[in-house]
Write a structure and sequence with these properties.
By secondary structure, the chain is α+β, with helices and mostly antiparallel strands. The chain has eleven helices and ten strands.
Amino acid sequence: MAFELSAEHESFRAVVRDFASAEIAPHAERWDRDHHFPVDVVRAMGELGVFGLTAPEEYGGSGGDLTSLCVAIEEIGRVDQSLGITLEAAVGLGINPILTYGDDHQKQRWLPDLVAGRALAGFGLTEPGSGSDAGATSTRAVLDGDEWVIDGSKQFITNSGTEITSCVTVTARTGEGTAQRPEVSTIIVPSGTPGFTVEPAYNKLGWHASDTHPLTFSGARVPADHLLGTRGQGFAQFLATLDDGRIAIAALAVGCIQAMLDASVTYANERTAFGVPIGSKQGVAFQVADIQVMAEAARLLTYKAAALRDAGAPRDAVKKAAAIAKLYATESAVTATRIATQVHGGYGFMEEYPVARFYRDAKILEIGEGTSEIQRMLIARGLGLPVE
C-alpha cells in the first residue's frame, strides 16, 4: 500500500515551492552571513497564508490540517532552514497553544495578527537548568491580587525578540503540586511588559537567520486572565504541544535531506574527475543513493504521523509516530548533510555552497523539541518497556 498526498496538498506544495524559490532562495546565503531576520519576507509568508494553515477561518486562517503545514515547512526548509524553523515555531509553539487552550478573549486578541503573519509569538519552556527535564521548571508565577508576578529565566526561545513579536507564552510554577511534579501553568506575557527582558540574541552554530534569545523575568506583572487554559495543566499542555511540534520538525528535516539530495545530484553530474562526472563513480553514486533512501523514508514517516494527527488518532499513537518520525528524519538530516559535504569535496567546506549552511543548520534538529535520546525513550515506552 502506497501513501500519497492528496492532489490539493501537492498543488499547495507547488505554490509554496514557487514562493520559496523566488523570495527566499536567492537571499538565504546573505541572510545567514549577516545573521539577518527578514521581517519583510515573514510578512510575505503571512500573505501567502502559511501561518494560518491550521487556524479556523474566524481568525483569518484556512482551517487546514497539520499535513498542509508540514508541506509548507518542508518546502521552505528546502531552501532555508532558518525560515523553516521560523514558520514551524510560529505555528506550532506560538499559535497552536493559544488556539488549543485559549479562551475566546485570548483568541480574539492574539490570533488574528499571528495568523496573518503581522506578529509572531514565542513559547518559553526551556530554562538554564531545565531542558529535557521540563518538570524541573524553576520560573515562578505568584498570584498577587488580580495579577501574576513572574520571576525566572528561559533560554533558546525562538521568535521571542523580533520587531513583530507580540507575546511569549511561558511555563511557570504556580504552586507546589507534589514531590513528583510541581504545579506548572502557562501564562501569556505580552512583549514590552515591565520586568520582561529579551536578552541579546545568541551567536549560534546554525539557523543564523532565525531569531533566538534568552529571556529574563524580574517581577513581571500580567493580568490574571493571561493564564492560558486551566491552572496546573501546563505540563500536559506543553507535552501535547511538543507532539505536534515533533512532526513539524521532522518535516523541516525532510526539507533539509531533499536539499542535500538535489545539490548532490547536480554537483555529481557537473563535477568531473579523471575525465568523467564524479557521479559515474560508485563511491559517489552510492552515497547519493543513500540520501535518496533517507529522503523517501523520512518523508513517509513524517506524513504518516501528520495523517494520524489529522485523522484524530489516539494520542499515544500520535506520540509514538511523532517520535519515530522526528528521530529518523533529524538523524538522517545530519547524515545527509555530512554526505553531501563529502560529495562536494573542498567546495562543500566553502560558505558559497549551500551544503555548508545546511551542514551547520542540521545538528540542532536532533536537539530541539526533544533530543534524539528523548525520542528513543518515548518509542521504547510505546513498546511497553519500563524505561526511565
